[in-house]
Design a protein that fits this description.
Elements lengths: L10 E5 L56 E6 L5 E5 L15 H9 L3 E6 L9 E20 L4 E22 L4 E8 L6 E10 L4 E8 L4 E10 L5 E10 L4 E10 L5 E10 L5 E10 L7 E10 L5 E10 L6 E9 L3 H8 L5 H17 L5 H15 L4
Parallel strand pairs: 4-5, 5-6, 6-7, 6-8, 7-9, 8-10, 9-11, 10-12, 11-13, 12-14, 13-15, 14-16, 15-17
Antiparallel strand pairs: 1-17, 2-5, 3-4
Length: 392
């Protein structure tokens, strides 16, 4: 396993591939999952999975003192044919895509009052997206949502987080055989919000899952996307865009568990940072198990530092238990503006300020295009533009 972290500005690190013995699976990849909060000790910040997180700013989500005292306004719109249900914790469909792997996720599962299950029937091809708006109205809130697609169904889901709250929630995506699901999750919280969420996807035979995670707001945002394959032939594409401002902590911890043969995964996250004490954390864990022959996987994280005083921790991890794979690799780089790009633009009459704006927009352009919804793409580009106003 190759690891790169606390990467200096201007460096580029590409991880090598290592074939691991069966007993050497990294502990961060094999945390014992549980729905019971008591199975997870209260973290103190020295644990591998918590060493980058400012626990004192989670406002009690990690130690059980954050009692549900607030509310969120939830608005869900879905095309005809989609079923939306409100269910209790004992509903058999909850937990199918994955089990909590840390104390906050377990706390969220034990604390929500009602869960929402959204079902797209077999063979349905939706022409309009399912839209879920979550607007914080203060206090502490918990939630759980399941999106389930029947065999050969196709859908797009947009989840939009706004407002102010201290929130822990789990989201599940269950894809039947041959299904196609694209999810766009936007974290555009107020500056004082705290958001921790585990995203579990279970990808069926020959199914395709695409996730686009966009993080702008919040005091602390800690997201944990996880991929499992239910059968051979599944594909997962995980894209992410984050813009970390002064004082913000934004943490994305991904885990792709290749436990079925002939599956594929592609991970690409990009971030920009500006201002004092802006802190971005990206952890990319990929595990190729012994049974997962024919796996093809690659992950990359790129970070652009716009001002002094920002910090990036980028840690790609790749562990392989079989040599019978198509390909595997990872890369991570953190740096400032490319002086050659700036010189090229300025030599053609573009001002330095505008040149910097063009470079940043170009840096994010390919990820914004993965959204595929014009109204959302325009909103994201406008948000990036407003963030740039503060730095260039």
């Amino acid at each position: 396993m190759a690891e790169a972290q606390n990467i200096p500005v201007g460096s580029n690190t590409t991880g090598s591939i290592a074939v691991a013995a069966e007993s050497t699976v990294a502990t961060r990849m094999s945390a014992e999952p549980s729905f019971d909060v008591a199975d997870f000790p209260v973290p103190h910040g020295r644990e591998e999975e918590w060493r980058f997180t400012p626990l004192e700013r989670l406002r009690g989500l990690h130690d059980g003192t954050a009692e549900a005292s607030g509310s969120v306004k939830v608005e869900l719109t879905a095309p005809d044919g989609v079923t939306v249900e409100t269910v209790a914790r004992d509903d058999a469909r909850l937990g199918r895509a994955g089990t909590p792997v840390d104390r906050v996720a377990a706390q969220a599962f034990s604390a929500f009052e009602k869960a929402t299950v959204v079902t797209v029937p077999k063979d349905a091809v939706l022409t309009e997206p399912i839209r879920l708006g979550v607007h914080g109205e203060g206090g502490v809130s918990y939630g759980h949502t399941v999106f389930e697609l029947g065999a050969f169904a196709e859908a797009v889901v947009v989840i939009d987080h706004t407002g102010d709250t201290v929130r822990a929630a789990n989201v599940e995506y269950v894809l039947g055989d041959g299904a196609r699901l694209t999810v766009v999750s936007v974290q555009d919280w107020d500056d004082t919000a705290v958001h921790c969420s585990q995203h579990n996807a279970l990808v069926g035979r020959d199914a395709r899952f695409k996730s686009v995670v966009v993080t702008f707001g919040g005091d602390v945002v800690r997201l944990h996307p996880r991929i499992n394959y239910a059968a051979p032939g599944g594909e997962a594409e995980l894209y992410g865009l984050y813009f970390t401002d002064s004082g913000q902590h934004q943490e994305h911890r991904l885990f792709v568990d290749h436990d079925s043969p002939n599956c594929r995964s592609d991970v690409a996250y990009k971030g920009a940072l500006q201002g004092a004490d802006a802190h971005a954390v990206w952890i990319g864990d990929v595990l190729i198990r012994k049974a997962a022959e024919g796996t093809d996987t690659y992950e990359v994280n790129r970070n652009l530092v716009l001002t002094d005083g920002s910090r990036v921790d980028s840690v790609p991890n790749l562990e392989i238990e079989t040599g019978e794979i198509v390909g595997a690799g990872h890369a991570s780089a953190t740096g400032r503006f490319d002086d050659e790009q700036l010189f090229y633009l300025m030599a053609r009459g573009v001002s330095e300020r505008e040149a910097r704006r063009l470079v940043v927009r170009g840096f994010f352009a390919e990820l914004v295009q993965q959204v595929g919804l014009p109204d959302v793409e325009e909103r994201l580009l406008a948000k990036i533009e407003s963030e740039l106003e503060a730095s260039v």
